[in-house]
Design brief:
Blueprint lengths: L3 E6 L7 H14 L3 E5 L3 H5 L3 E3 L27 H13 L4 E6 L1 H14 L3 E5 L15 H22 L2 E6 L6 H9 L4 E3 L7 H13 L5 E6 L5 H12 L3 E5 L11 H19 L5 E6 L2 E6 H4 L8 H9 L2
Helix pairs in contact: 1-9, 5-6, 6-11, 7-8
This protein binds 6-O-phosphono-beta-D-fructofuranose (F6P).
6-O-phosphono-beta-D-fructofuranose (F6P) binds next to loops.
């Protein structure tokens, strides 16, 4: 029977990590578990930066973006020495299981750690990129999409008024999910994503033909993993002789109050992660798929997630 668990957030922060921490702590305590909070992700395990969390330690965080536990990317945890020190912290503090709140990089690390040291690890899928395989919607994605969409709606006002072409860069290192979703919801004219070969001739052809029939303003969304807004805008200007403007939304998409969707997922999945540890489950990531909480083994969760782009893309172009 487990008595003490620890929770940590690792990788890029995502809005909704705080409600997930709140859920793990309060639900864990309700199940008579002691819950420790590890600070700064894997770094905190390596350097024994952890402390007990009480019901009150997580008061008032449900609506806050970021993570009260801090987070980061930790190269040291990829080393034998770093992993050994993390394991020593776990033994010394009598921790029976870990809740790892993060994305696929965090789960790859947790999987390695579990294989080597047999420490029960359950993942809570949180990443704005929505790139955890087997999970439809990660914590933070809905908030990031809405933040980007709000910006795009504002850009639309000036683009229409001044009849301009905008190239808007959104986050997504390896995934075009945010880009595709906001392009459709924002009525954007085109979208450039890492999962699809870029055909700038086709983009420019559409712009020029649009202009001939009086369509003078364009918003082209580009996922950061598919290219830089500046470069794409320059090439469009070179090919069409039309003026362009660029906006890079960047880290603004990682912050802000989590939406109701991000919070609901976080609160439900946080609780489920504690239940899994109590039930003796390990080496799995939890998240939402087809409206239900699913358990995906880490090995599957860290595989490249297929983004179903064709229908999405067709609809974006049909509705332009
Ligand atoms: O968390 C995912 C993500 O936001 C990616 O979309 C982006 O490429 C990356 O993190 C940025 O990481 P950092 O904050 O370390 O620059």
């Amino acid at each position: 029977m487990i008595k003490k668990i620890a929770v940590l957030t690792t990788g890029g922060d995502a809005p909704g990590m705080n409600p997930a921490i709140r859920s793990v702590v309060r639900y864990g305590i309700s199940q008579k578990l002691e819950v420790m909070g590890v600070f700064r992700g894997w770094w905190g395990l390596i350097n024994e930066e952890l402390k007990p969390l009480s019901h009150r330690s997580v008061s008032g965080i449900i609506g806050q973006g970021g993570t009260i536990l801090k987070t980061g990317r930790c190269a040291e945890f990829k080393t034998e020495e770093g992993q050994k020190r993390a394991y020593e912290t776990i033994k010394k503090n009598n921790i029976d299981g870990l809740v790892v709140i993060g994305g696929n990089g965090s789960f790859a690390a947790a999987h390695e750690f579990y294989k080597k040291f047999n420490v029960p690890c359950v993942g809570v899928a949180a990443s704005i990129d929505n790139d955890v395989n087997g999970i439809d919607y990660t914590i933070g994605t809905d908030t990031a999409v809405n933040t980007a969409l709000d910006a795009i709606d504002k850009i639309r006002d000036t683009a229409t008024s001044m009849e301009r072409i905008f190239v808007v860069e959104v986050m997504g290192r390896d995934s075009g999910f945010i880009a595709l979703t906001v392009a459709l919801a924002g009525g954007c004219e085109d979208v450039i994503i890492p999962e699809r070969d870029l055909d700038l001739n086709a983009v420019c052809h559409d712009i020029v033909h649009g202009n001939l029939v009086g369509k003078m303003s364009w918003i082209i969304v580009v996922a950061e993993g598919a290219g830089k807004a500046e470069d794409i805008a320059r090439q469009i200007t070179d090919m069409t002789s039309l003026e362009t403007r660029t906006v890079v939304l960047g880290h603004v998409q990682r912050g802000g109050r989590p939406t109701a969707v991000s919070r609901d997922i976080a609160l439900n999945v946080g609780k489920a992660a504690v239940d899994c540890l109590i039930a003796g489950k390990t080496d799995i990531a939890l998240g939402l798929a087809a409206g239900k909480i699913v358990e995906v083994d880490f090995e599957t969760a860290i595989k490249k997630k297929e983004l179903k782009i064709d229908n999405f893309y067709k609809l974006i172009k049909t509705l332009t």
